[in-house]
Amino acid sequence: MREPRLFATLSTSDLNALSYWRRSRTGALVAWPPGTRYGPVLLEKDIPLGLPRHERRDYKLNWYTATVVPWLRHAHAAVEAEPLAAAARFAAWTSRCLCCARRLEDAHGRLAGACTGCRGRLPHDVLTALISLRH
Ligand SMILES: [Zn+2]
Asked: 39: which of 19, 44, 62, 71 fits an S-S bond (Cβ 3.0–4.6 Å)?
């Protein structure tokens, strides 16, 4: 059996924060495509000047903990709250299979959000729900 493994979410706190996620074999959500980073970015100009090396490291760590970690939790919670809707969104926005990320080439694939190989291996109730979410 297959299950949706790719998701898309739009952060409610930052409407430009579109992000794509893939569920790893361990169940964790990782940014997709590989190597992509989402969320707030600490720019060099935003780090106070003149900090000693260890304070600079602590500043970055504290900023990450206070800014990026909550952002990631929020994005992941959005996926976990409505995984099928997030998977359908991934397929609609990328035209890729929500299980394996192959390009959706035919009308049936685009309707279900899953490629030919994955479509037949999705549970029937999941496939039905995905199709209804696309309309
Ligand atoms: Zn597929």
From this structure: 71
